[in-house]
């Protein structure tokens, strides 16, 4: 059996325990068990040099909140870069480019990615200037930290890696893959309290089913996300 070089995610966080559960179940767990993906979470405090293991400080110029400082991030990133080369160093930030399926598709063909999770008021701009190659947001809102966005990104990317999903065509038919939302889906029973599955789906006529699905996907996209059709 040929050796599979796993896609590797190195996530740097001040709250590594927050990421234990998302990567220990379902598809992400299977991807790691199969050796297709490797997800390693690094505790930023392990790279702090002060006695208190603090990783933040007051902002220059005054203002509210604390800022994550340079040395711990730099030490962790430099250590990782000595071990392997990385395709991307991604900072999860509300002012980054908004994550979409196209971005996930592009990242799924990379081999090694570092993800930085911010906290407090943010991270020192120099880390972003020197090390970060890409900044990604999961939406126009602010969370307490970058751990949940990092988990979202890893999930969206990992499920696209060949061999992760049992049905490889499943990811290709998801919403947004063809710039359309997905069509409605049904399962048994065919009739539930008078609510019936569309007859075409019970017909066994593949061409008609595909045509129906495309029409329904187009209709749903026009109703809910007309911006995608532009």
Q: Please report the total strand number as a whole number.
A: 10
The CATH superfamily of the largest domain bears the name SPOUT methyltransferase, trefoil knot domain
Number of domains: 2
Q: Determine and state the CATH class of the largest domain.
A: Alpha Beta
CATH topology of the largest domain: Alpha/beta knot
Oligomer: single chain
Secondary-structure-based class equals alpha/beta
Number of helix segments? Answer: 7
Structural shape: elongated
Mean pLDDT comes to 93
Element-level helix/strand string? EHEEEHEHEEHEHHEEH
The CATH architecture category of the largest domain equals: 3-Layer(aba) Sandwich
Biggest sheet details: 5 strands, parallel
| Ends apart, CA distance between termini | 46 Å
Question: Which radius of gyration do the C-alpha atoms yield?
Answer: 22 Å
Summarize the structure in short.
The protein is an alpha/beta fold.
């Amino acid at each position: 059996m040929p050796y599979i070089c796993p896609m590797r995610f190195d996530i740097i966080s001040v709250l590594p325990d927050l990421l234990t559960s998302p990567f220990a179940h379902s598809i992400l767990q299977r991807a790691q068990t199969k050796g297709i993906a490797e997800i390693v979470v690094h505790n930023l405090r392990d790279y702090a040099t002060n006695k208190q293991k603090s990783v933040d400080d007051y902002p220059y110029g005054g203002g509210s909140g604390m800022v994550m400082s340079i040395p711990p991030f730099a030490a962790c990133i430099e250590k990782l870069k000595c071990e392997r080369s990385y395709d991307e160093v991604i900072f999860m930030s509300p002012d980054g480019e908004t994550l979409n399926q196209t971005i996930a598709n592009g990242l799924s063909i990379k081999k090694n990615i570092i993800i930085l999770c911010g906290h407090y008021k943010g991270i020192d701009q120099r880390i972003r200037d020197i090390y970060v190659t890409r900044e990604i947001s999961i939406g126009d809102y602010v969370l307490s930290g970058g751990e949940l966005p990092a988990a979202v990104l890893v999930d969206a990317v990992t499920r696209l890696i060949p061999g992760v999903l049992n049905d490889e065509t499943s990811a290709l038919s998801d919403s947004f893959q063809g710039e359309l939302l997905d069509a409605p889906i049904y399962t048994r029973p065919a009739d539930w309290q008078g609510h019936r599955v569309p007859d075409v789906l019970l017909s066994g006529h593949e061409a008609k089913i595909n045509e129906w699905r495309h029409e329904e996907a187009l209709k749903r996209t026009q109703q809910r996300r007309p911006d995608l059709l532009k």
